[in-house]
Design a protein that fits this description.
Blueprint lengths: L4 H20 L68 H17 L4 H15 L7 H5 L8 E3 L2 E5 L2 H10 L7 E8 L2 E2 L7 E9 L8 E8 L6 H14 L4 E3 L2 E11 L2 H8 L18 E2 L3 E2 L10 H6 L27 H19 L8 H13 L23 H15 L6 H17 L7 H21 L7 H4 L4 H8 L8 H12 L7 H12 L15 E5 L2 E4 L6 E4 L4 E8 L2 E12 L12 E7 L4 E4 L3 E10 L4 E6 L2
Parallel strand pairs: 3-8
Antiparallel strand pairs: 1-2, 2-6, 3-5, 4-5, 5-6, 7-8, 9-10, 11-12, 13-14, 13-18, 14-15, 15-16, 15-17, 16-19, 18-19
Helix pairs in contact: 1-3, 9-11, 11-12, 12-13, 13-15
Length: 644
């Protein structure tokens, strides 16, 4: 569970206090040793290690490498660097610049306040004889002024896609000339006690080797932007200028829009069409909803909408205006996909869990069963891989679950912890959604046969929904499940068009907001400062006693990260890794956890038992996937689920 804002503030304050303490009571001339690599002679008495470096007190400075001086043998007296009064032995301009870059990266990466940074810079200048900026605004490159445009009842600033591209290209994150970008648009309330909110436009470059995204535009107001045309005007103008290509550093780049990712209200806003709760609110088919206390969409075979029909506005009842995106070479139906994070995780799965835990009596489970589910989930914590940012927790806290927790429950822990607890018909119904989403999140999402099978499962899930629960619950979210497979055919696995990375970027906006005074100016300054970070965030290859399968998945010998699925189909518990050779114990018995709607082994979910005492040895290239080993308390075995 993430720490509160006040806790994070206290930790940062304590960090800065520790830094200041170590600088006020230093090893002699502590900072002057930072950019210098001394090669101490073995004959030096009573000094077997080099002087302490300030890098150990500053997270983010461990990677700092200054220009080393010529190695010399020092006696006891010469190990103390001469004072700053000796200009010949002071820190050079190049080293000072490197030090500035390191401090800048540290301050921005760890969200250190300007006041704390300024105090630290002042002490370094006064006590250590290092010439670096005394003011944090100079160090961080904070703009001296901000250009904010009034837009309706709010404020707007446009940063541009070009500045993001220039940074990625100049830092070496992009080497290809044909680029595709995805844009994320959503609202972000800055607090729970007010209506103030940001509406950022976030850019993701698919060919970039870096993990960081960029903010293209930012709107701030009490409500969403009043005019879609005004909000998207600068974006559409810049995208139009890219159609013939654009020059960066003497090289021609061709840029096209891959997709625009947004939740249902934001999609309706930028497309200027009926909202999701309107009679003609479905974005993918032309059926008219029915009123059952709320608008529901019971049909599954309605005529599908097309890009051409949308631009021609042939179904006028679906449109509320003309979208500025219509002037671009862009599909307003096919290239604005349905985001599964909002639809499935925060929509359908959240509704199901809420009905089982806190719903009315026909759907609510007995308290003993709810406690049993919670007990199961809490037992899984010790086995959870580090790939998950959030560990399983009590099901009674479902109102506070985040999207990643609903995702984890649906595709990993749910089928195990609900076994013999949920009534069989509802358990099998849940498995329809579980299997379908696992397929659409895998590399088989674009395979015609697998995609068609997932589509059939989702349609069966929607068909059975009113009989198991209620007819008035087949609302926009449940109905739209039948359109997910079409997006997977076009874009591949659903994570390619997910809002998860954009939500992470939006949390950066919320986290770096220091106070409620002048929030727009604050965010513009923070975004410009971040553009000055010296090093781009390139995925780091794991270098410990283990190996990486992908940028965020690491296999080690530690519990939770030591279970893998081999290409041969065997599940192995690793206990030793040496370079590219692994040793471990395989499970003798490997079978399916369930056989409805298909064998669970078909979606790489295995019921494992009886560990073989004989070790096996294999190369890490034989590993197909890392697994989440979940204890099955009912059967006293383990379930190994391949990570997606």
């Amino acid at each position: 569970m993430d720490s509160s804002r006040s806790t994070r503030y206290r930790r940062k304050r304590k960090l800065v206090e520790n830094i200041l303490h170590n600088i006020r009571h230093p090893v002699p001339n502590l900072l002057l040793t930072l950019p210098i690599n001394y090669n101490l002679s073995s004959s030096t008495e009573n000094h077997s290690s080099s002087p302490d470096s300030v890098a150990q007190y500053l997270p983010g400075l461990n990677d700092f490498q200054g220009d080393s001086l010529e190695s010399t043998n020092l006696d006891n007296s010469s190990q103390i660097v001469s004072s700053s009064d000796d200009s010949d032995e002071g820190v050079s301009d190049i080293e000072s610049e490197s030090l500035c870059e390191a401090f800048r990266d540290w301050s921005l990466n760890h969200n250190i306040t300007h006041i704390a940074t300024k105090d630290l810079l002042s002490i370094i200048n006064e006590k250590c004889g290092v010439t670096i900026p005394r003011d944090s605004r100079t160090l961080l490159g904070t703009p001296t002024s901000t250009k904010i445009r009034e837009m309706g009842q709010g404020q707007f600033h446009y940063f541009g896609i070009k500045s993001i591209l220039q940074k990625c290209i100049s830092s070496g994150c992009i080497s290809e000339s044909d680029l595709s970008i995805s844009l994320g648009i959503d609202g972000l309330p800055i607090s729970k006690s007010g209506r103030s909110q940001f509406w950022p436009i976030i850019c993701k470059i698919h060919q970039s080797k870096c993990n960081n995204l960029g903010i293209v535009a930012l709107y701030f107001g009490q409500t969403k932007p009043a005019s879609c045309a005004e909000y998207l005007k600068d974006l559409c103008s810049e995208l139009n200028s890219f159609q013939a290509g654009t020059q960066f550093l003497g090289k021609l780049f061709k840029i096209k829009i891959h997709a625009i990712i947004a939740d249902a209200p934001a999609r309706a806003f930028i497309k200027q069409c009926s909202p999701y709760n309107a009679y003609y609110g479905c974005e993918r088919c032309e059926q008219k909803g029915k009123w059952l206390g709320k608008v529901v969409f019971p049909e599954q075979n309605a005529v599908l909408r097309t890009d051409e029909d949308f631009k021609l506005r042939s179904r006028h009842e679906h449109h509320q205006g003309i979208s500025p995106l219509a002037d671009l070479n862009f599909g307003l139906v096919s290239q604005i996909p349905i985001d599964y994070m909002h639809l499935v995780c925060l929509g359908v799965v959240k509704r199901l869990l809420h009905m089982w835990v806190k719903g009315p009596l026909p759907y609510k489970l007995h308290n003993n069963l709810i406690s049993k589910i919670s007990c199961n989930l809490e037992r899984y914590i010790a086995y959870a891989p580090t790939d998950f940012s959030r560990k399983p927790r009590c099901i009674r806290e479902v109102d506070h679950y985040k999207a990643t927790e609903f995702r984890q429950f649906l595709i990993y822990t749910g089928p195990v912890c609900l076994f013999n607890i949920l009534p069989l018909n509802k358990y099998n119904h849940f498995l329809l959604l579980h299997v379908a989403i696992r397929i659409l999140l895998s590399n088989s999402a674009q395979d015609i046969s697998w995609n068609k099978y997932a589509d059939q499962l989702l349609r069966m899930f929607v068909f059975q929904y009113p009989s198991l629960y209620s007819k008035d619950l087949v609302t926009y979210n449940v109905h739209s499940l039948i359109h997910l497979s079409n997006d997977a055919i076009k874009f591949g696995k659903l994570d390619n068009i997910s809002a998860f990375p954009f939500e992470n970027e939006m949390q950066y906006i919320k986290r770096t907001l220091r106070s409620k005074r002048h929030p727009m100016q604050q965010m513009i300054n923070r975004i410009h400062e971040r553009q000055n970070i010296h090093k781009s965030k390139i995925p780091v290859i794991y270098k410990g006693p283990g190996f990486s399968l992908k940028s965020s998945s690491v296999v080690t010998c530690k519990k939770g990260n030591n279970v893998v699925l081999l290409n041969s189909g065997e599940c192995v518990l690793i206990n030793y890794i040496n370079n590219d050779i692994c040793e471990g114990f395989k499970f003798k018995t490997v079978k399916s956890l369930y056989d409805h709607p298909c064998q669970s082994q078909n979606v790489h979910m295995y019921l494992c038992a009886d560990i073989d005492t004989n070790k096996i040895q294999f190369k890490n290239s034989c590993v197909k996937s890392k697994c989440y080993m979940i204890p099955h308390l009912e059967l006293d075995t383990f379930v190994c689920v391949a990570l997606l």
